[in-house]
Amino acid sequence: MSITITIAQNPQELGKRAAKKIAELLCEAIAQRGEARIILSTGASQFETMEALTAEDVDWAKVEMFHLDEYVALSESHIASFRRYLKERFVSKVGLKAAHFVNGEGDVQKNIAALSAELRSKTVDVGVIGIGENGHIAFNDPPADFETEQAYKVVELDGRCKQQQVGEGWFRSIQDVPVQAITMCPRQILSARHIVSSVPHAVKAEAVYNTLTKAVDPMVPATLLKTHADWNLFIDHESASKLVAWGK
């Protein structure tokens, strides 16, 4: 278990620092094996990291990308679609070797099976894993299933998760948020060689505090990241605000 915590002044600085670390790890993998694999998170908390990462000097033609989650039965044309998010903010700006998307439309179980087989064909080098306001990782809301061996599965979204999506502006109301999503499962997330988490903003302060101060607990899914051999957590002054009394 190894945790490296970096506290930045603001989300922009956080994004640049996190992107630099991600790029270093990808370049190391390319130097060692001639290729690299990355998992990318989405959401408002990843804006600065994603933008900074596209500017990093990485041989993207040797990088395969996977992503964490997607809503079930949501069109890619919807503003909240994570496929759309990644294509617009990342894939269109770098020349990847391949991009593998979670598809919540059509035959969902068939899509999950195909994506799982592709993901598990080789080890992922870097998992870029955000933390939700309720402490979730991907769409593994509390209580998260820490035991499943599945790579991806369909889950029901909890109320606080839905409220976060509304708060970030992806949907007009909780009623508009899909009931289900496909998510990468916790054990699969932990199988990445390295994990980098970008967690800015005051709305994440409680989740950051709970993640770092509580024991590993499915009710705070992000606590599982503390068991990883190389977890790099990037927070800013606002998301770190509740850690002051804890001594961080």
Automatic annotation (TrEMBL):
Biological source species: Sphaerochaeta globosa (strain ATCC BAA-1886 / DSM 22777 / Buddy) (Spirochaeta sp. (strain Buddy))
InterPro entries xref list: Glc/Gal-6P_isomerase, Glucosamine6P_isomerase, NagB/RpiA_transferase-like
Entries under PANTHER family matching the protein: GLUCOSAMINE-6-PHOSPHATE ISOMERASE, GLUCOSAMINE-6-PHOSPHATE ISOMERASE NAGB
Keywords from the named record: Isomerase
Keyword Isomerase: yes
GO BP annotations, alphabetical order: carbohydrate metabolic process; glucosamine catabolic process; N-acetylglucosamine catabolic process; N-acetylneuraminate catabolic process
Gene Ontology cellular-component annotations: cytoplasm
Residue ranges constituting the Glucosamine/galactosamine-6-phosphate isomerase domain according to the UniProt record: 10-227
Protein name: Glucosamine/galactosamine-6-phosphate isomerase
Molecular function in Gene Ontology: glucosamine-6-phosphate deaminase activity; identical protein binding; isomerase activity
Taxonomy of the source species: Bacteria, Pseudomonadati, Spirochaetota, Spirochaetia, Spirochaetales
